[in-house]
Amino acid sequence: MARLNNELFCKLGDLSVDGYFIFEPEQQNFLYLNKSFGEIWELELDQVFANPQMIMENIHPEDLQHVKSCYEECLEDRTEKKYEFRLMFPGREKYVRIIIYAIEEGRLMVGTVEDITVMRHNKIHIEQINARKNITLEVLAHDLKEPLGMMKLTASSMEDGIAQTGDVQMMNSLAFIKDMCERNLLLVRSMINREFLKSSVIEIGKERADLVWELRDVVRFYKRSKLGKTKNIKFTCSAEQIYLHLDSMKFLQVINNLISNALKFTDDYGYIGIHAEELENTVLITVTDNGIGIPDELQPGLFDHLPETLRPGLKGEESGGFGMGIIKAIVDLHQGKIWFKSKTGVGTTFFIELPK
CATH for 2-115, among 3.40.50.1370, 3.30.450.20, 3.20.20.70, 3.10.105.10? Predict the structure, then answer.
């Protein structure tokens, strides 16, 4: 039966656009490779059969240790595994997904390799668009708050004077201006809250990602906005690349929401810092500000949707009432932990620890 299965596997491989392989771990050699495997790796099959180790030369240097760990894990667990990593070629890189099985008591490893470069690039592009959309909404809310608030305040200050003239049409116009300002502020805030609320009801889909690249892109966007001129926003990290498995789009909503809260409760030209620290088995992300801090009486229920924990920002920004609860829910879905330290008048630091 094993021989029959191998023959069927090889026949499928000869017809497939995906790479097929059979590998002997003890002998460290390939028993079978189909034509598509060589095309994906951009190597001649005769060369790979003669020197199996040469396939390691095309693996992206940043992913090399990851691939070695995956190989050891597959040998140890002897269950179906799916991995993604990059191949490196002059001036370009290629994303591949490998599905691998250890069979016959681990004496053979069989599997398929798929070129997912186009799909991966499209996914990254979509995630960037979504992340920047959320950031843009936050920036828009902050940028509109001041002019709309000033318009509302000006209309209010004019009301007493106009009331004395008895000009009903002008009074109605001022009431209309105030109402429109309030409506538009609530509209922008509800859009942000609705987008963030979706994260609590959508299943998480984790993939290996470079956290440093993701966080740097978020901070860069904020610094280029008007908010970057009124706040000192800084990103630091312990390494140029930190890889871990996460749902990038949802996790960036967590970071975006924490930065947004820091902006609300930090005076103009205050400091907001984002730091990523790679530890032995986990990664620690911190979002720090030197704002007004969280009063002691509000801290116990901060993640519990309690109405008494809600408060407006320094410029009257509204609170959605569920942001912190969803932040914790998303971190929990990543098997992570979140906590904070805060002191009134000194500032607040949120800590997020995620497994690698």
Answer: 3.30.450.20
